[in-house]
TrEMBL record, chain A:
Lineage: Eukaryota, Fungi, Dikarya, Ascomycota, Pezizomycotina
Occurrences of domain RSE1/DDB1/CPSF1 first beta-propeller (ranges): 1-238
Organism of this sequence: Periconia macrospinosa
Protein name, entry field: Pre-mRNA-splicing factor rse1
UniProt entry tagged with the keyword Nucleus: yes
Keyword Cell division attributed: no
Keywords for the protein's UniProt record, in alphabetical order: Nucleus
The RSE1/DDB1/CPSF1 C-terminal domain, residue ranges: 741-1066
A Gene Ontology cellular-component term: nucleus
UniProt cross-references to Gene3D superfamilies, sorted A to Z: 1.10.150.910, YVTN repeat-like/Quinoprotein amine dehydrogenase
Domain RSE1/DDB1/CPSF1 second beta-propeller: 326-651
TrEMBL record, chain B:
Organism: Periconia macrospinosa
Domain of life: Eukaryota
GO biological process, one term: mRNA splicing, via spliceosome
GO cellular component, one term: precatalytic spliceosome
PANTHER family with a match to the protein in the record: SPLICING FACTOR 3B SUBUNIT 5
Protein name as it appears in the record: Splicing factor subunit
InterPro entries: SF3b5/RDS3-10, Splicing_factor_3B_subunit_5
């Protein structure tokens, strides 16, 4: 059964035919006009006709009663609907009145020996109704209230969510959560299937959830209203705890009768234990992209709401890694390798470190120690180490190749035995500059430009090929892939030369039996610094392909497919990684082959485990210069050296390409502002309907005082001291209607990663806006924090008793602030903006310019009634000010400072009412913004109007313009419009990756982070447009929703292409792709489209 | 004439199916009530909007949902005394 809020109810019958096919019947209707549905559930009736219970309210009598009396007499009803399967007909079977506050229903299990029926939850009551009940049979419970110094004993709770859990053997219980987050366990006493009593008992206090799910494995999953989703482990079912039990015999069945309210004492978790958390940014209250940490790419700072669980989060585009080992080295190392001793070994035995012109050999055992007598040449730099043939190890150093056979550690000690050492020396006056190896092949490049090639002999020794390559240019790097399974050698070698080319040579004899023939060449933009070839999982029919990775001195990374038969290079992707030369290491990440690219920071090129698309993501790790794959008996990971530290880390999970750090905040954060020079952020936080900190403390002190008198030497009974406040991250704050708790906090996300200072606002004031300003009159280096404050603020209707601006002086290091003065304002200042060495304040409909005085703020200019409703945001460029209104989109105004007093003149506004939440100026004429209904839009001022606004120094021409249709004299044009399905709370024009172009980055309330990327080429734009059009038809969603209608939910979509839809192209099958590409005009191939989509994301965002 | 009749029938069918399709007899109270109910239903039906309001009010989403539903009963006050709409 599906019900709408008003009137409509439809019943669909699902029939299963066969194993997989489910057919849905056409709906049966059970409409009832002028009826509101509060809740709807299906009942458990065993094998009888299906029954539904709905909580309905019929308001038709109130519609025709002009006296307004009927509204008070409206009754809420619990209505049962039965679907008669034989007649294929829905019947309204029975209805009975319930408590007027009822809003939620829960099913009671039916069947043999089970009671069946409905639980109806309302404010301060839970009632059990048998199916087709008589009024006298009701069993009712009041919801227990918290006991404590700060709690109001008369405040009633209601149930927000809950779950039914049936145990084996037919027993069942409910976990019901109140809006405070307290979870109660409710059981029904039902001997012989007749409910005699219902009981309720405090279980534990959890964060407020939208849904609770108990798993058979003994876990409890909680989808929280805000913040991370949590997984708890069930320690017990709360049967043996000493919390008070209340049952229905204590309460009258009529909710209006008097009763003694039940109380319980909240306590720490006892029945549940926190097991895991699933990160979530929901709800994002404000966001800023900035780089105060001076990293390669900027970080995303967000404030995330949710009462006591509020956090300040730093999000980076990086893969999370797990640090396993960190140990110091005697000296800084430049290279690291691990190796097995024989081809059959499962795990690595040796770690070889290249220190400054010295090589250190370590053995991995129970602990890592220096190995002796391994035969490695110690007094040299090492270029490469490779387990070779059956049981040999080779070490390549500038002066030759050392071939060591049969290294063994006979008695688990660090002293090795070996069979044979062979040295190969290059021709005189030449050194080895680069090498590439695998188990059966070795290639070395000499300083003279020659490349020599060796293969493994039958006895494991090196056999030099007769052919050699000599090039005119210096060789900078070589690469040979691993020997493919079932072959004796790899087929190709890649050579990087200083003349900015990469050449591919064959290693397997061709038709004429020649090897080391030049097969293909790729020109590059800069000399290559590293090469590697590997096989990576992808979406090709075979499941994997051979890839050539090229790193350039300029810091650019290039990945190309290297054809396994012909050696042709194709399907190339480029990306700038960092300002230093790129080097590579082949590793295994989560069991799949991957490549670490090292530049100014490490990156990983890997296959996304879900979509099988190749990805490139930075690692959330310190930069390192050398790394190697590590396979130990205990763990697998990557070993790396950074300065004089040896580290081993491993990858957690390759699904999520962002990492998040969080700092807890006190209350729900509203807005914040960053002081980028000092790396600190100032957050204003406020909590509605919550007792202020001062009132809380007063009550606690009072309770403690009272206790001292009563029991002079009494021990507190339940472990924690009586007056102690419960930790708000679980228990929330004590509620008080109409009260505000508010504070200003300084957060340092860089060094301390903590809150530095908190200033509570007293007197029921709440902070509504914040700005960081410098004043011309006070010098450029003195920073001030201006905070807009409202007292006794209330919404619907909007009310307050007074409003003001508080000014705080910020210390030189930005880590402390001091209260300066407070200036009364006529209305709460919801928008503040530093402007031309002064402060622009939007209070109500008035925009005014203030300077900082000794004891108060001094007004310098005023523009009365700039906007129709209320100013909520300000942005500026030059003299232009963009004013956003709460309900009426944006207004452009210009500030004229050549006249006295200064003038602020609104000159253009919008044609559509947009409930603006955030705006940003894209350029001098254009503004992008978001509204409360989930749209992102862009408006532009016509060029003539824009020019005219800046023409005269005193703005007289603008003042003489006539108001047009009750608004400003001119109108803005709409450039783009797009429905996002999430309320944008912050929008910013910024660079997201190092070396990238600017994008428009936005954050949505429900945790969305999104980017709007500009098109730079007409041809590409056309292709994307056609692709989107085709994908709308070719790749329809499961629910069959029309994509165009969805993105045009409130206003027709304009000027924006849905990137999420376009990226679906990457996961489509080969055939479907070809059909789509075939229909695109402008000679595009599937690979070109693929590359265009990749570049669109890769060059601008992540 | 037949066309007019059909149009009339279609309109009636639509009016029976969808709440809020006005006719010449719709009073100002009915019209504004429907608009208000429509808005309220939209607020509680779109999760981001419901969450936005709940955060502002500092209460749970369930409580906001019930409050909005309760407001749908009589969103613009009791109906006017006279049934002739243009007199009110």
């Amino acid at each position: 059964m599906v019900a709408s809020t008003e009137k409509n109810k439809l019943v669909y019958i699902l029939t299963r035919s066969g194993q997989t096919d489910i057919t849905i019947s056409s709906p049966l209707e059970a409409h009832k006009p002028q009826t509101l549905i509060y809740s709807l559930i299906g009942l458990d009736v065993g094998y009888d006709n299906p029954m539904f219970a709905a909580l309905e309210l019929d308001f038709s009598s109130a519609e025709v009663d002009p006296t307004g009396e009927a509204v008070k007499e409206l009754r809420k009803e619990l209505v049962y609907y039965e679907l008669d399967l034989g007649l294929n007909h829905i019947v309204r079977k029975w209805s009975e009145p319930v408590d007027r506050t009822a809003h939620a229903l829960f099913r009671v299990p039916g069947g043999p020996n089970a009671p069946s029926g409905v639980l109806v939850c309302g404010e301060d009551n839970i009632t059990y109704h048998r199916i087709n009940n008589k009024k006298s049979d009701l069993l009712r419970l009041a919801i227990p209230r918290r006991e404590g110094a700060t709690e109001d004993p008369n405040r009633t709770r209601s149930i927000c969510t809950g779950t039914l859990y049936s145990l084996k053997g037919g027993e069942f219980f409910y976990l019901l959560q109140t809006e405070d987050g307290d979870v109660f366990k409710m059981t029904l006493d039902a001997p012989d299937g007749v409910v005699e009593k219902i009981k309720i008992k405090f279980f534990d206090t959890l964060p407020l959830a939208t849904s609770i799910c108990l798993l058979r494995a003994g876990f409890c999953f909680l989808t929280c209203e805000s913040g991370d989703r949590l997984l708890y482990e069930l320690e017990s079912l709360g049967d043996d705890s000493d919390d008070a039990v209340f049952d229905s015999s204590q309460f009258p069945s009529d909710p209006l009768k008097e009763y003694a309210p039940p109380f319980f004492r909240p306590r720490e978790l006892r029945n549940l234990k926190e097991a895991d958390a699933l990160g979530s940014l929901n709800p994002i209250m404000d966001m800023e992209v900035a780089n105060p940490a001076l990293e390669d790419a900027p970080q995303i700072y967000t404030i995330n709401g949710g009462g006591g669980r509020s956090t300040f989060r730093t999000t980076r585009n990086a893969l999370e890694v797990l640090d396993l080992i960190e140990s110091p080295l005697p000296q800084s190392a430049s290279g690291v390798w691990t190796t097995k001793l024989t081809a059959e070994d499962e795990t690595d035995t040796l770690i070889i470190l290249c220190l400054h012109s010295r090589t250190l050999v370590l053995k991995i055992g129970d602990d890592v120690e220096e190995a002796n007598n391994t035969g490695f040449l110690v007094e040299t730099n090492t270029l490469g180490v490779q387990q070779f043939g059956e049981d040999c190890v080779i070490q390549i150093h500038p002066k030759g190749i050392r071939h060591i056979q049969g290294i063994k550690f006979p008695d688990d000690g660090a002293v090795a035995t070996r069979q044979d050492i062979t040295d190969w020396h290059p021709p005189a006056h030449r050194t080895i500059v680069a090498c590439a190896t695998n188990n059966r092949q070795v290639a070395i490049a000499l300083s003279s430009g020659q490349i020599l090639y060796f293969e493994c002999d039958s006895d494991g020794s090196l056999a030099m090929a007769e052919e050699e390559i000599s090039l005119d240019d210096t060789i900078s790097c070589l690469a040979i892939p691993d020997v493919p399974e079932g072959s004796v050698r790899a087929y190709f070698m890649a050579v990087g030369c200083s003349n900015s080319t990469v050449r591919i040579y064959n290693l397997a004899p061709d038709m004429e039996g020649n090897i080391l023939r030049d097969i293909s060449v790729q020109g590059l933009s800069s000399p290559p610094s590293a090469l590697t070839i590997n096989f990576m999982t992808d979406k090709s029919p075979r499941g994997y392909s051979q890839y050539l990775h090229i790193g350039l001195r300029s810091g650019v990374y290039i990945r190309s497919a290297l054809d396994e038969l012909s050696g042709e290079i194709g399907d190339t992707r480029r990306r700038f990684l960092g300002p230093e030369p790129v080097t590579f290491t082949r590793v295994a990440a989560a069991g799949e082959p991957a490549v670490i690219a090292m530049t100014s920071r490490p990156w990983l090129a890997y296959t996304h485990p879900r979509t099988s698309v190749l990805q490139l993501t930075p690692l959330n790790y310190i930069p390192f210069k050398s790394a190697w794959n590590f396979e130990g008996s205990a763990f697998k990971g990557v070993i790396c050296v950074s300065g004089n530290e040896l580290r081993i880390f491993t990858f957690n999970d390759l699904l999520d390409n962002t990492t998040c750090e969080s700092i807890p905040l006190r209350y729900t954060p509203r807005k914040f502002v960053g002081h980028h020079d000092q790396g600190t952020f100032y957050v204003i936080e406020s909590e509605n309907n919550t007792m202020g900190a001062a009132a809380r403390q007063a009550l606690i002190d009072q309770a403690e005082g009272a206790m001292d008198i009563e029991q002079t030497n009494g021990e507190t009974s339940n472990g924690h001291a009586e007056g102690n406040e419960l930790p708000p991250n679980y228990f929330g704050y004590p509620r008080a209607k109409g009260q505000w708790a508010s504070c200003i906090q300084i957060v340092d996300p860089l060094t301390d990663k903590a809150v530095l200072q908190s200033i509570e606002l007293t007197d029921n004031k709440s902070a509504v806006s914040v700005a960081l300003a410098t004043f011309e009159s006070r010098g450029d280096n003195e920073y001030y924090l201006a905070v807009g404050v409202a007292k006794d603020l209330q919404f619907t209707p909007y009310k307050f008793t007074s409003a003001s601006i508080q000014l705080y002086k910020i210390s030189a290091n930005g880590r402390e602030m001091e209260f300066m003065h407070e200036t009364a304002m006529p209305e709460p200042p919801l928008a503040l903006l530093p402007f031309k060495g002064k402060l622009l304040i939007g209070a109500g409909t008035n925009l005014s310019l203030y300077d900082c005085g000794r004891n108060a703020m001094l007004r310098k200019a005023l523009a009365a009634d700039c906007v129709p409703t209320r100013i909520v945001g300000l942005k500026t460029q030059g003299s232009r000010i963009i004013i956003s209104d709460q309900a009426q989109s944006v207004t452009y105004a210009v500030h004229k400072d050549q006249v006295h007093p200064n003038r602020i003149i609104p000159f253009a506004d919008d044609t559509i009412q947009r409930h603006t939440t955030c705006t940003e100026m894209v350029d001098y004429e254009t503004t992008v913004g978001g509204d409360k209904f989930g749209n992102i839009w862009m408006v532009r001022c016509p060029p003539k109007v824009s020019e005219a606004s800046d023409e005269s120094p005193d703005g007289l021409n603008l003042l003489q313009d006539k108001a047009f249709l009750g608004g400003a004299p001119n109108r803005l044009d709409l450039v783009a419009h797009y429905f996002t399905n999430d309320i944008p709370t912050s929008i910013q024009r910024t660079v997201l990756i190092s070396g990238g172009e600017r994008v428009i980055f936005w954050a949505g309330l429900q945790g969305t982070l999104g980017a709007l990327i500009p098109f730079t080429s007409r041809r590409q734009h056309k292709m994307f447009q056609q692709l989107e059009l085709l994908l709308r038809n070719e790749d329809k969603p499961l629910s069959g929703r029309d994509h165009l209608a969805y993105r045009s939910y409130f206003t027709p979509v304009k000027g924006v292409i849905d990137g999420d839809l376009v990226e679906r192209f990457l996961v489509l099958g080969r055939d479907k792709r070809e059909t789509i590409v075939g229909q695109i005009q402008g000679s595009w191939s599937s690979e070109m489209v693929d590359e265009a989509i990749w570049n669109m994301r890769g060059l601008y965002a992540f | 004439m037949a066309d007019k009749l059909r149009a009339q029938q279609q309109l009636e069918a639509l009016q029976a199916r969808y709440i809020g399709i006005g006719s010449s007899d719709t009073s100002k109270h009915e019209w504004t009530s429907n608009i208000a109910r429509d808005s309220l239903s939209s607020y509680l039906g779109h999760p981001p909007l419901l969450q936005y309001m709940s955060i502002g009010l500092g209460q749970s989403r369930e409580r906001t949902r019930v409050q909005l539903l309760d407001r749908m009963i009589q969103p613009v006050g009791p109906p006017p005394k006279s049934r002739i709409s243009w007199l009110t």
